[in-house]
Specification:
Its EC number is 6.1.1.9. The protein is an alpha/beta fold. It contains 26 helices and 29 strands. The longest helix has 30 residues. It is elongated. The structure holds one RNA strand.
Length: 870
RNA sequence: GGGCGUAUAACUCAGCGGUAGAGUGCUACCUUCACACGGUAGAAGUCCCAGGUUCGAAUCCUGGUACGCCCA
């Protein structure tokens, strides 16, 4: 049996145990165990990633739940994995290339792709190592990567079958183009930002020479691609213009004036220019009204040949030139300052360009309806529930999803075009020859799929789908999903849609949306603000267990977490407290006392058993309901207040001189606490378990705490006896003695004689003497008041200290009078309410009884104070 | 423009129909034989504002104010 250090050495413990757990295969699923399965899949971190606070939180919560469920006796499986993160990863490697003075085009596609794979092989281990550092009890034998061949097979199957069912199609559509990354994006990858800009008013003369129209625009350069001017059909001001044509300045083209209700009559002049090739609204209007579409801006964000004299200019340069020319030729009416929203790439930050482009799209309306229904009818339950409202709104207004990306890094689109006849083939495997013309030269679509396409399949692709594996049957649907609400649409909704479509069932039964981790003052962490707290540094400084516990105790559903050094310190101190309490137990029990030593219980034991029973019930309920903070908070107080402050102090006497049976009780209590705390602070508890419990376990009990059961069913918790009210009374009396000493300025170490009128506390005399450091405690029903004593009122009686010569009688009297006034003030509303008929008759009996109890207790004190005052 | 969330002690947050709590900080004291990463005692709050429901509201409802987020 080892001697424990004075302080918990977390640095050693948190690096040691993970290997032991892995070697024991403690976290591997046990499909053949006959246990009920419980499963969860990790939100796969990007391979580019470093563990940040968001990861630390989400994975801590995963681990708490998984360890809890494992302990409860489930076949708990947490599937780990990483995401290839198309854009993010490619950007990172491209940046490296740039630093080396080359780029992906010079390298060529194949070499570039190999380069990213190399990078991935080198870096994937980092994030996995960090998950281990955090203690995540994942099943590494089932580790997945979103580009694994089996996951690729799933992707191809979904693509091909969706295509054949008509839900995936290719076509020219207006998409958001990122000129910096040179790829299309989906609507979700667009961020809108308010910018101060200008509103230019342009004059377009009527072709017949009679009059003009003035249009307002924030993007004057696009006028080169105008193919109409539009007014609202009911706008009385412009009825006479409809059907006529105007001469488009700088180009000499004649374009019609059309009517369409998309025009906002209150914007600008109420006349708008229509550029179907470069604006989403105009594109839709162009389709409706069958207008021409002229592309004057290319994918490189430079003007095209169609822009005539402006061809080759950058879009922002072209704007300056067009405005200057319009002004010179008298077509510029005025310029106003104007604040408008611009769309930016969520990835590169570049100003996006709405462009018509040939891309692949997925029609998700049918799947969206299924996902919507699943939440409405409760097959998927959200915590917090309010996210369901956002879910509903988004899914009912969902647009087709642009799934193709002009990137190298990702799942290649399984579509081939025949070089000879142009025939399109969408197949699982590369066709050997064109089905139409027989030509053997087939060119695969160069594009890859949106990263989220493979993420959507994650809850079943990780289990081997489309193969009908045993894992798939056993672990799908997963039990719970834990993730951030920021990816509700990106990921959660798409998994729901994919699961319902391909598996015919929800991918998870419950979703818990974790909080956002912010800094100490509630600010979002960001590198630019410099307020990022790095979990790896925290683990070094405060310990992994402290980090986990701090995150858990702050993880109240629906509110953000303000992470601060103060919180981390509190958690570290908590860990140390548990360590020292355990050390105390270890020091006081010789090796012959084990968990098989039959314990006997006294008042203190029955009281603590009652506390453990109540709290473990509440903790279990809290974990089932994702109230991690509630569970952690209860454990915190159970350890500090009940176990350490109260029980250990009371047990000290018997630990020194008691019987083996008396001493055995505390071992059981510590054992229960360790098992309950293990999901939150696994390294600390495993370390203590080894030091204190490992050699005292009953035969057949797992020697690793990670494998032991959730303690709620422990036989000891069913023991009942004693008077539950005694301990709180003892605490109050003890506190009163200490307060009297402090009030009277008595040195805490000076032993004085004490008196107590609560005769039932006599069994606690030794404890009171030891803790309050008293010379003696006399239990008596006689009047305690005396000129040489300081007295205090407690529930049901009074206590006193003998202070001959030390005491100021006037101050003592003033104190009691103050107490009297306070009690009168407290009693006033209580008496009033109890005298109130409507309260007594209408309020529930329990509420009245409780109030009556409170009133009686105070009346008693009042009487006691009066008696002491004489 | 629509939707959602949050306003509680100096700070960060729990509580969400029975009369206010935690952590940190603050004040005073204590190195008592598990722990100073400790202990004891204490100070500190018109629970954003205004109405309403109720025997009773920090808690439920309505309206307002402030801040944050999401969608257009």
């Amino acid at each position: 049996m080892r001697e424990m250090d004075k302080a918990f050495d977390f640095r050693t413990a948190q690096t040691r145990w993970y290997e032991v757990w892995e070697a024991a295969r403690a976290f591997e699923a046990a499909p053949d165990s006959g246990k009920e399965p419980w499963s969860i899949v990790i939100p796969p971190p990007n391979i580019t990633g470093n563990l940040h606070m968001g990861h630390a939180l989400v994975n801590t919560l995963h681990d708490v739940l998984t360890r809890f469920k494992r302990a409860q006796g489930y076949d708990a499986l947490w599937v780990p994995g990483t995401d290839h993160a198309g854009i993010a990863t490619q950007m990172m490697v491209e940046r490296q290339l740039k630093a080396e003075g080359t780029d992906r085009h010079k390298l060529g596609r194949d070499a570039f792709e190999r380069r990213i794979w190399d990078w991935k092989e080198k870096n994937q281990g980092a994030i996995e190592h960090q998950l281990k550092r955090l203690g995540c009890s994942v099943d590494w034998t089932r580790n997945r990567f979103t580009l694994d061949p089996s996951l690729n097979k799933a992707v191809r199957k979904v693509f091909v079958e969706s295509y054949k069912a008509g839900r995936i199609y290719r076509g020219p559509r207006m998409i958001q183009w990122d000129p910096a990354l040179q790829t299309a994006l989906s609507d979700l990858e667009v961020k809108y930002e308010e910018r101060r800009g200008k509103l230019w008013y342009l004059r377009y003369p009527m072709s017949d020479g009679h009059g003009e129209v003035v249009v307002a625009t924030t993007r004057p350069e696009t006028m080169l691609g105008d193919t109409a001017v539009a007014v609202h059909p009911e706008d009385a001001r412009y009825q006479h213009l409809i059907g006529r044509t105007v001469d488009l300045p700088l180009t000499g083209r004649k374009i019609p004036v059309v009517a369409d209700s998309f025009v906002d009559p209150t914007f600008g002049t109420g006349c708008v220019k229509v550029t179907p090739a470069h604006d989403p609204n105009d594109f839709a209007a162009g389709q409706r009204l069958k207008l021409d579409s002229i592309t004057i801006l290319g994918f490189d964000a430079k003007m095209t040949a169609a822009a005539g004299a402006y061809a080759g200019l950058d879009r922002f340069e072209a704007r300056k030139r067009v405005v200057a020319d319009l002004e010179a030729q008298g077509f510029l009416v005025k310029v106003e300052d104007y604040v408008h929203k611009i769309s930016l790439s969520d990835r590169s930050g570049a100003v996006l360009e709405p462009l018509v482009s040939e891309q692949w799209f997925m029609d998700v309306k049918e799947a969206a309806a299924k996902a919507l229904a699943a939440v409405q009818d409760g097959r998927i339950a959200f915590t917090p529930e309010h996210h369901a409202a956002v879910w509903q709104h988004w899914l009912t207004n969902i647009q087709d999803w642009c799934i193709s990306r002009q990137l190298v890094w990702g799942h290649r689109i399984p579509a081939w075009t025949c070089a000879a006849c142009g025939g399109l083939h969408v197949e699982m495997e590369a066709p050997s020859a064109c089905g139409a013309c027989g030509d053997k030269k087939l060119i695969q679509d160069p594009d890859t799929l949106d990263t989220w396409f493979s993420s959507a399949l994650w809850p079943f692709s990780v289990f081997g789908w489309p193969d009908e594996t045993a894992d798939l049957k056993r672990y799908y649907p997963t039990s719970v999903l834990i993730t951030g609400y920021d990816i509700l649409f990106f990921w959660v909704a798409r998994m729901a849609m994919a699961g319902l479509t391909w598996m015919g069932d929800v991918p998870f039964r419950k979703v818990y949306f974790n909080s956002l981790v912010r800094d100490a003052s509630g600010q979002k962490m960001s590198k630019t603000k410099g307020n990022v707290i790095d979990p790896l540094e925290v683990m070094e400084e405060y310990g992994t267990d402290a980090l986990r516990f701090a995150l858990a105790i702050m993880a109240a559903p629906g509110t953000d977490i303000a992470m601060s050094p103060a919180r981390l310190e509190a958690s570290r101190n908590f860990c140390n407290k548990l360590w020292n309490a355990s050390r105390f137990v270890q020091m006081n029990l010789d090796a012959s006392i084990t968990l098989e030593t039959e314990p006997v219980f006294g008042e203190a034991e029955y009281w603590l058993i009652g506390r453990l029973r109540d709290e473990l019930g509440a903790i279990t309920d809290a974990l089932e309901a994702f109230r991690f903070h509630d569970a952690a908070d209860r454990l915190y107080h159970l350890v500090y207040d009940d176990f350490c402050a109260t029980y250990i102090e009371l047990a000290k006497v018997q630990l020194q001189s008691g019987t083996q049976a008396q001493k055995a009780a505390i071992l059981h209590f510590l054992d229960i606490l360790l098992r309950a705390l293990h999901p939150f602070v696994p390294f600390l508890t495993e370390e203590i378990h080894e030091d204190v419990m490992a050699e005292r376990l009953p035969a057949g009990e797992p020697t690793l705490l990670a494998l032991r059961s959730w303690p709620i069913g422990e036989w000891i918790l069913r023991a009942r006896g004693g008077d539950a009210a005694l301990i709180p009374r003892f605490q109050e009396v003890l506190s009163a003695f200490l307060r009297l000493k402090a009030e009277q300025g008595v040195d805490p170490a000076k032993r004085v004689a004490a008196f107590c009128s609560l005769l039932e506390l006599e069994p606690f005399a030794e404890a009171l003497k030891a803790i309050a450091r008293l010379e003696s405690v006399t239990f008596t029903s006689a009047d305690l008041a005396s000129p040489t004593r300081a007295v205090a009122v407690v529930a049901g009686g009074a206590v006193a200290l003998e202070l001959a010569g030390l005491k100021d009688p006037a101050a003592e009297k003033a104190k009691l009078e103050k107490e009297l006034a306070k009690l009168e003030k407290e009693l006033e509303p209580l008496r009033a309410r109890l005298a109130d008929d409507s309260f007594v008759t209408k309020a529930p009996e329990a509420a009245v009884a409780k109030l009556r109890g409170q009133a009686e207790e105070r009346e008693q004190r009042l009487a006691q104070v009066k008696a002491l005052l004489g």
